[in-house]
Amino acid sequence: VASESFLRSLPKAELHLHIEGSLEPELMFELAERNNIELPYANVAEVKKAYDFHNLQSFLDIYYRCADVLRTEQDFYDLTWAYLLHCQSDGIVHTEPFFDPQTHTQRGIEMGVVVNGIARALKDGEEKLDISSKLILCFLRHLSEDDAIECLEQAKPHLEHIAAVGLDSSELGHPPEKFERVFKMAKDLGLKAVAHAGEEGPPEYIVQALDLLHVDRIDHGVRCSEDDELMQRLVKSQMPLTVCPLSNVRLKVYEHMSEHNILKLLDAGLNVTVNSDDPSFFGGYLLENFTSLAEHLNMNEAQAVKLAHNSINSSFLSDEEKQTLL
Ligand code: ADE
Ligand code: ZN
After folding, report:
1. Which residues fall inside 5 Å of ion ligand 2, going by CB?
2. I need a surface site. Which of 12, 70, 72, 86 has the fewest CB within 10 A?
3. pTM assigned to the model
4. ipTM more than 0.90?
5. Helices 145-155 & 180-188, crossing angle to 10 degrees?
6. Is 199 among the residues known to form the active site?
């Protein structure tokens, strides 16, 4: 079984991390005070007690409420910088965070405030911590495709900071086909594409993300194991899956980590990676996701090395850049 020090020392990329989901309760209270906002919680202990989820939606309701403390460019900088310090202690050498602009623009925060704050921290991460990065703009799938198109339009002046688009929020009832046009527009702008699919939604949503959105990676994707034909397709194409073990257990996709299918997918030849999703809400950053697999699934060193290599190889870095990290 792989040890914590071995897992920390492996060079890793994180490919599925919602920057708003890295907001720790302590920083949330600090920002609430700085911005004169009343929180629905009295203290950190009360916040942590509220993080008891029974499915994706019960988490999202709280996650969007917490994001309300983020108001200024400096707030987004501080949020991102705090995450990068966790990357440093976990042995992450490259990260591709998501952000949800519509969560902020809907409340009157301008796209530029959000992007510039995050991008400035990512630049400092490269220069001061030697952690490279690519930023991914996610559309909220519970909103309309027209809203997503408007969001893409607002992002156009900031494309130098954005590498890809993604699709997140409430999956069930909001299939990838709803966003076919806006993904085509994004690809025409030269952006890469990813989409959450097969987290709570059926394998059919994974097929749609591949065939209709032409994604470069699938986020989560764990429900692919219910469809043999899809499994074979994923092995053959080596399409990356960004799996988030602690998230899946906290949101009850699996009752316990010992039931998680990630190592079965890995051993079946799929290109799976380990990621933390929303670490502040799900009780662990990337290293804790790895150690949990060692503890509950007896992950060995060879499996851990493969998962870490997959993460770097599945990033949006150039082949040359990947070589320097492997
Ligand atoms: N937004 C933040 N985390 C998410 C997840 N795991 N699934 C869908 N939307 C999200
Ligand atoms: Zn996610």
Report:
1. 277
2. 72
3. 0.98
4. yes
5. 20
6. yes
